[in-house]
Specification:
269 residues; alpha/beta; Rossmann fold; 8 helices; globular
Length: 269
């Protein structure tokens, strides 16, 4: 092992840096929350194809059952969770550890849009609070619950799906904007806190992705978002899954607290 000052660098062999397949998940347990559909479903399929032991979690039991059958998974690989309930989130992590003894990576793709095309003064507080609870509080509760297990192993990867709305804001989506920008700030702080623990935590900020979630978004809001994508199209769930798989892999070893964009050129910062 070579060192430069007090910083460890990669091992060398015959003058060359030793390489390994760092995007392979063999021997790793990856918990995908929001796996029943959309980005989460595509991500779970991709992780399994790369050798990972996937555990699927969602509130949608029928979607979970469909993916469980497709991937040929046993019942211990399928969990029901309500991200709007802290006790449910804690029970999920406890159950996965009990069944599989480890969680090497956590990928959270859950999100609700909440009210769209709504003026600030017309927001209904119950709907605002529900959106923030699921998107932001759920993210916090998941992270809180999984960190002690990752710290004990001195290794972990956490990836949460936020949104370009958390950076730029979309008019008429006040609860969604608030929850997603809150996620970005939370992730930045956690990353600095655990930076020496072998754990990375990052976010993915998509623009419009072709998922069931966007079927409830108003046409006016969708047009606003699509008009701002230079590529002129929506993103595909498989494209987002590729980025999340990297963030959840051992290859993502020197990037933490960062928000990756998947925006078709809308965001270039």
């Amino acid at each position: 092992m070579e060192y430069y000052s007090h910083y460890k660098i990669d091992s060398w062999s015959d003058g060359e840096i030793m390489s390994s397949d760092k995007i392979n998940f063999s021997g790793q347990v990856v918990l995908v929350v929001g796996a029943a559909s959309g980005i989460g479903r595509s991500t779970a399929e991709l992780i399994q194809s790369r050798g990972g032991t996937v555990v699927l979690a969602d509130f949608d039991n029928s979607g979970l059952a469909s993916l469980q059958k497709k991937l040929g998974l046993g019942d211990s690989h399928v969990k029901n969770v309500n991200l709007g309930d802290q006790s449910s989130v804690q029970a999920l992590i406890t159950s996965v550890i009990s069944d599989h003894s480890q969680i090497d990576a956590l990928i959270n793709t859950v999100g609700v849009t909440g009210p769209t095309n709504t003026k600030t003064e017309e927001m209904e507080w119950a709907a605002f609070e529900r959106t923030v609870t699921i998107n932001l509080f759920g993210t916090i509760w998941l992270t809180q619950a999984v960190l002690p297990h990752m710290k004990a192993e001195k290794y972990g990867r956490i990836a949460h799906v936020t949104s370009i709305a958390g950076k730029e804001g979309n008019p008429g989506m006040h609860a969604y904007n608030t929850s997603k920008s809150g996620m970005i700030g939370f992730i930045k702080g956690v990353a600095k806190e655990v930076a020496t623990e072998g754990i990375t935590i990052n976010a993915l900020a998509p623009a419009v992705i072709r998922t069931p979630m966007n079927t409830v978004t108003s046409g006016e809001t969708l047009k606003y978002m699509l008009d701002r994508i230079p590529m002129g199209r929506v993103g595909e769930a498989e494209e987002a899954a590729e980025m999340l798989a990297f963030m959840a892999s051992s290859a993502c070893s020197f990037t933490t607290g960062f928000t990756f964009d998947a925006s078709g050129g809308r965001a270039t910062y």
